[in-house]
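Escalation from tier 1.

The customer reports that the assembly of two entities below gives different structure tokens on two consecutive runs. Tier 1 could not reproduce it. I'm attaching the input and our single run for tier 2 to review.
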Amino acid sequence: MAKIVVVGLGPGGLSQMTGEAMEALRDSGVIAGYDLYIDLIRGAFPEKRFLSTPMRKEVDRCRLAVEEALKGNTVAMVCSGDAGVYGMAGLIYEVAEQMGEIEIEVVPGVTAALSGAAVLGAPLIHDFAVISLSDLLTPWELIEKRIRLAAEGDFVLCFYNPSSKKRFDYLRKACGLILAHRAPETPAGIVRNIGREGQESRVMTLAELRDTPVDMFTTVFVGNSRTKVIGGKMVTPRGYKGVTID
Amino acid sequence: MAKIVVVGLGPGGLSQMTGEAMEALRDSGVIAGYDLYIDLIRGAFPEKRFLSTPMRKEVDRCRLAVEEALKGNTVAMVCSGDAGVYGMAGLIYEVAEQMGEIEIEVVPGVTAALSGAAVLGAPLIHDFAVISLSDLLTPWELIEKRIRLAAEGDFVLCFYNPSSKKRFDYLRKACGLILAHRAPETPAGIVRNIGREGQESRVMTLAELRDTPVDMFTTVFVGNSRTKVIGGKMVTPRGYKGVTID
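Tier 1 run:
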């Protein structure tokens, strides 16, 4: 049967892919994906056929991949990070449902919440919420509501798509909402170009984060009420009962 | 300088580790961790020295690892999934701070939220909250509050540690709280022994989930108000504005 494997590449370099993901690419006839991600892996698979499409054309990209699969090719659709976190995995199911019978498999990868956390220390050791600040497909009112509720629940917060040219002040607004529930000294952190050339990171306070400009290649973290800074790293304790080290 | 690398192994098999994680184990002099995780990798590294400890002895395990590092060994501390999500990465920072100067590096892995989601389809395509139902170190009242707030915010929900002998009814309670905000037909799913022998999964409704017994090897997912079932898989759309496929 026609088959698509939706593969999460992890943050960047080939060494951050799982063995299973590497194998899925090796076993595929065609590799499809956004230009930038294709460029990350093209060198390692010189014999493959690639279908690359520009950004923002996600539905077209999925249709192209499903068409290829329906011709009898095993298609690997690649995504940065994890294909199931703001990735193409869902859209492939939705598009394939309309186009024909194909087998779909999702191979997970290391999403930016995990790879970014590892750079900053250990911010996600306790309950956390992942929120995209992009309002392309989600009303800003719902995004604000989620930030408020997650802040009230003392979740560690991780923001994807924290900014763009049009949305330069969204992270500032988000920090304002969190500051209604959390101290300005709460540890926060940003990581840019995770696992890629030019990786940069910084641990700061929530108050500083509010005044820090970020771009769309940045993932943002805000600690919970117990998160502390140890040796320049963000560290969230395992719980709330008494001291952590007992 | 003395060094500890905290390594996330992913859900189970060696092929679900990243290349970077594999390399960190190869480069280490000693591999430390909980018995069960050590057993997963022992065969692949016959020449290594292993320090394995029983469960629930996390602080002792970290102290042992830091002591080894302070002797000049490069120690890899392994965790299932991702070391930074309810894992040992945070505790290593906390313990090391008290014991001496060592370098700490975290190598991320595929946590159960991602590997379980891939088995069920694509439930995490939009904003999500990860909550542990274990009240060993967190008051149950705070866990309840988080479930209520995340349900109100229409986050996709992912539960770790959904049950144990003493806490057999916690998932039932959690579903009750979610049902105050979400329809009983909301798609939900469970995955047991992700990536290991005997992997099992099931997609069902939130109402059915409430009456489903689960064990501590299970990861649980509850969709948001837009999540649907396509060909037996849980699929969350990319957003809320109009139709998803435009």
